[in-house]
């Protein structure tokens, strides 16, 4: 009996050791790419994107700056079943906004802050129009567009001028692509620094800064800095950005359209 009992204890120890080793291998192994997740693809992914087909994606039209194109947007869209699009924003101020922002408002009649806001609006409009044209050249047509608002791009110190720039982009997207949905990608600290406490009521794609999936879904219940619902919360794994989609399946149907090139 004693020998059998010792054999049983020894067997349990070996089994526990095997289970522990297997657990450590699993948690230490690099996270595999989840093709069923929503992925964000743009110019940084041109060289290192795995040859996989993703279910949902947000495709960047610009090359990190407004009035710059993403050279592989069409190739990235070919790897997804459903997608929406996002565009970069920015407001470099004078003299560039005066040189570029000639339409749709007539700004020469204004001076001071009114002229700054007018040219900012026009600059945003022209930037969105450029992105719409680039998307069309790539054969990309989406029912939902996101405006990427981040401090990494050029902005004025005047929050009202920055708001006018974003309003110009929204006006262009709604006017040139009707009907289309528009939302904002940002993080609370970035938004407040650039536009203050501006509640424009648009859906939010929230940049969380998280490097793991665990806990990201909780951001779906946070207060939105844009005043609209939180549609997605972003996180990064292995230098690739992914999103938790909130309010399923309603958001999926609103934001992502089927890729017509996929059969």
Structure write-up:
It is a single chain. The chain is of the alpha/beta class and 263 residues long. It has 2 domains: 1-30; 36-258, Alpha-Beta Barrel (TIM Barrel), CATH 3.20.20.80. It contains 7 helices and 9 strands, in the order αββαβααβαβαβββαβ. The protein has helices at residues 2-28, 73-77, 96-100, 112-137, 159-176, 188-195, 250-255, and strands at residues 38-41, 54-60, 80-88, 144-148, 181-186, 204-210, 230-237, 240-245, 257-258. It has an 8-stranded mixed β-barrel with strand order 1-2-3-4-5-6-7-8. β5 (181-186), α6 (188-195) and β6 form a beta-alpha-beta unit. α4 (112-137) packs parallel to α5.
Q: Could you write a compact summary of the structure shown?
A:
With 263 residues, the chain is α/β, with parallel strands linked by helices. The chain has 7 helices and 9 strands.
Separation of the first and last Cα atoms: 67 Å
CATH architectural label of the largest domain: Alpha-Beta Barrel
String of helices and strands? HEEHEHHEHEHEEEHE
CATH class of the largest domain: Alpha Beta
Which percent bin holds the helix content?
Answer: 25-40%
What is the approximate shape? globular
Structural class: alpha/beta
Gyration radius (Cα, Å) is: 23 Å
User: Which ranges are low-confidence, i.e. pLDDT below 50, for 5 or more consecutive residues?
Assistant: 17-33
Mean pLDDT: 87
Count of the domains: 2
Number of helices: 7
Strand content: 15-25%
| CATH fold label of the largest domain | TIM Barrel
**How many β-strand runs?**
9
CATH homologous superfamily caption of the largest domain: Glycosidases
* Main sheet specs: 8 strands, mixed, barrel
Give the strand order, joined by hyphens, for the main sheet. Answer: 1-2-3-4-5-6-7-8
